[in-house]
Design brief:
The structure is a single chain. This protein has about 375 residues and is of the alpha/beta class. It folds into two domains: about 240 residues, Aspartate Aminotransferase, domain 2 (3-Layer(aba) Sandwich); about 120 residues, Aspartate Aminotransferase, domain 1. It is about 40% helix and about 15% strand. The strands form four sheets. Strands 1-9-8-5-4-2-3 form a seven-stranded mixed sheet, with helices on both faces. The longest helix is centred in the N-terminal third of the chain and has 22 residues. Bound molecules: pyridoxal-5'-phosphate (PLP). The site of pyridoxal-5'-phosphate (PLP) has 15 residues, from helix 3 and helix 4.
């Protein structure tokens, strides 16, 4: 699905030197590269504060801790997402309130979101799934009207840009109260291990996020609040510093792949190409088709036999996962997510796909779907 080796070969000299510098200085924890990457990333995003941490799941958890969410508080998020989003809500004793998604964009359904707001609702977690932004203008209006925090899950949409109706443009994750992202190797800005970050324009919140990520301490050995240990490794920061310079070029390469796929599959009666939001750019973390009247398992088998990888993101809606079943939900409650989970198929999507490979992939898919 990804070709991290091919991407590495092109930036090897810089990456190797960056990693070697960290080893030479034995600055493994909070070394200079962490601050340097933080500052470069703040500039790139146009945000006041980036707070690096150990992974994207931690970023979400620390954000919810810093906002003072308490057991019993309800947090609304999409039923169609990676499990991490709902996992941290549950871990903190908060109540995850799952809602259905839009059948075209796969982003959180705005009407369903509004319908599920109660007096206990404290936050909304929009997930910018597959690489484009949820409908942030509407979400921010709802949040303002109901006095709710907005925690953006930007793990799949680093670098995507959202345009408001007044023309102002903002990078994903810098619009809500706080943005949470992941540098997992296969993400659009991936390091060579685990990594994550939170972003915010709120000075006070930034202080709290930083404190909680560092054992709740403001000054060494002064622990003011309950915290966790969540740091971005210096070696990972050194990798990210190099890769950040290429991020826009990587997004352009992904868009070229998406355009190629779109052209090959558009107008096919059994294949629906991904919808593109009018308000958001797409950074194509995934290229996900909806199959109509095609045996997905058989297609995947045939693709695999011919050397084409495919994945199902995600096969089971959250409300039907064992860990998340509750009296609150029944199978059938989220018809869009249930239908989508049964018919999505993601194709290889990365920065190193050449035309010959793309021709082979699309030909192989089309032969089966004929
Ligand atoms: C990857 C991902 C996460 C979690 O990131 P980790 O760094 O793996 O903890 C959270 N939310 C979404 C939507 C993701 O895709």
């Amino acid at each position: 699905m990804v070709d991290l080796k091919g991407q590495y070969e092109k930036i090897k000299t810089e990456i190797d030197a960056g990693i070697q510098d960290v080893i030479n200085a034995t600055a493994f924890i909070n070394g200079p590269a962490v601050k340097e990457f933080q500052s470069d990333f703040e500039k790139y995003l146009g945000v006041k504060h980036v707070i690096p941490c150990a992974n994207g799941t931690d970023a979400l958890q620390i954000a919810m801790m810093a906002l003072g969410l308490k057991p019993g508080d309800e947090v609304i998020t999409a039923d169609f997402t990676y499990v991490a989003t709902a996992e941290v809500i549950g871990l903190l004793g908060l109540t995850p309130v799952l809602v259905d998604v839009d059948p075209n964009t796969f982003e959180i359904d705005i009407e369903a979101l509004e319908r599920n707001i109660t007096s206990k609702t404290k936050a909304i977690v929009p997930v910018h799934l597959f690489g484009q932004c949820a409908d942030m203008e509407k979400i921010m209006t709802i949040a303002k009207n109901h006095n709710l925090f907005v925690i953006e899950d930007v793990a799949q949409a680093i670098g995507a840009e959202y345009t408001f109706s007044n023309g102002t443009r903002h990078k994903a994750g810098t619009i809500g109260t706080v943005g949470c992202t992941s540098f997992f190797p296969s993400k659009n800005l991936g390091c060579y291990g685990d990594g994550g970050a939170m972003y915010t324009n709120d000075d006070e919140l930034a202080k709290k996020l930083r404190m909680i990520a560092s054992h709740g301490q403001s000054v060494l050995y002064m622990h003011d609040v309950l915290g966790v240990n969540s740091r971005l490794d210096t070696i990972q920061a050194a990798v990210l510093k190099v890769k950040l310079k290429h991020l826009d070029e990587y997004a352009a390469a992904r868009n070229k792949v998406a355009d190629f796929y779109d052209k090959a599959f558009a107008n096919h009666p059994k294949l629906k190409i991904p919808s593109r939001s009018k308000q958001s750019t797409h950074v194509f973390h995934q290229y996900t088709l909806l199959l109509n009247g095609i045996d997905r398992s058989k297609l995947r088998e045939q693709l695999a036999e011919r050397g084409v990888t495919s994945m199902i993101y995600y096969p089971i809606p959250l409300h039907m996962q064992k860990a998340y079943t509750s009296e609150r939900y029944q199978p059938g409650d989220f018809p869009v997510t249930e239908r989508v989970c049964a018919s999505v198929l993601s194709l290889p999507m990365h920065t190193e796909l050449d035309e010959e490979t793309l021709r082979y992939i699309t030909k192989t898919v089309l032969e089966f779907c004929a």
